[in-house]
Amino acid sequence: MFLVTLRFILIILTILGSQASSFQAFAGDDEIDGRVLAVEPQLCQDMKAHGVLTGRGPLTCQRLRLVEFSYVDFNGGVKTDGKIVVLDAISMQVLELFGELKRNRFQIEKTKLMEAYNGDDDASMSDNNTSAFNDRAIAGSDKISLHAYGAAIDINPRQNPFIRSEDAEVTIHPALGADYAERSTPRPGMAEPAVPVFARHGFVIWGGGWTNPKDYQHFQLDREIAEKLVELPAEQASEYFNAYVLACRNCLNNKPGMSGPALASCAAKREN
What digits encode the pLDDT tens for the residues 106-164? Predict the structure, then answer.
């Protein structure tokens, strides 16, 4: 049996275009169990019925993909029920990303689709659920969230809470995340060890790097890149994003630890 690299698989899947894929992907000597599937009509209907796909954002079900993967839970066991919905162009990178987190023994509580919470972000956070696509605005704003682009992932909200400071008042979501507001002592499930993993797969923006609010659970693509991917046809978008990811890795190789807008700017220049 021949071992092929995940990069080769990415190229093959790009050639195949938007067709659904089910496979075992490889990275080095480590096998990643998972698959990328089209959003079938029943799932699409469920997303609409439960307020996850509302028409507020730019995507339809045709541009979304269901990523299924395994992960390490907080008991140290491996679960195979991981599910997340993302933009088609980034779906293979997301599969590889979660495979890398698994190999690193990064622990995740659960990953249910947002239909289980009727699109309610607060309910998902309170359940410590890792999620991605949700057709909604940014909390407290009318601006469309990158979750509505399928280009943002929230991971372990309890261990990585959203924290906003206004005058003397501090707001923490979810409330149970207050135990993790202090970040100097590493604990399982905290996002910091995952930051370079997300960056290597194109998620260059981490909410934990913001000044106020701090959104430790939140990882996203640069907004300009996300908008570009949505504008392009699916096949071209996949090619564009794969080139962008390679540019991100080149930037990180030249300057380890680069992150946020600086990494986004470096990658955009190299990709062009």
Answer: 999 999 999 999 999 999 999 999 999 999 988 777 889 999 999 999 999 999 999 99
In this structure, what token pair is assigned to residue 186? Answer: 């590493």
* Tokens representing residue 249 in the block: 């890795």
Enclosing domain of residue 91:
6-271
1 belongs to a structural domain: no
Q: What percentage of residues in the chain have a pLDDT greater than 70?
A: 88
Domain count within the chain: 1
The radius of gyration of the chain's CA atoms, rounded to the nearest angstrom, is: 18
Going along the chain, which residue ranges are E strands?
21-27, 30-38, 64-72, 78-87, 152-154, 162-166, 169-173, 205-206, 214-215, 218-220
- The answer to whether residue 91 sits within a structural domain is yes
Please check whether residue 229 lies inside any domain of the structure. Answer: yes
How far is 204 from 153, CA to CA, in rounded Å? Answer: 12
Q: Which two tokens stand for residue 55?
A: 């028409």
Give a yes or no: residue 187 inside a domain: yes
Place of tokens 């990953």: 111
Determine if residue 139 is left, alpha or beta; phi over 0 gives left, psi from -120 to 50 gives alpha, anything else beta. beta
Query: Would you give the distance in Å from CA 137 to the centre of its chain?
Result: 17
What is the predicted pLDDT for the residue at 148?
97
Kindly state the greatest CA–CA separation across the chain: 62
Rounded Cα–Cα distance for residues 257 and 192 (Å): 12
pTM of the prediction?
0.89
pLDDT digits 0-9 by tens, 121-134: 999 999 999 999 99
> Is there a contact between 92 and 66 (Cβ–Cβ < 8 Å)?
no
Q: Are 140 and 122 in contact (CB under 8 A)?
A: no
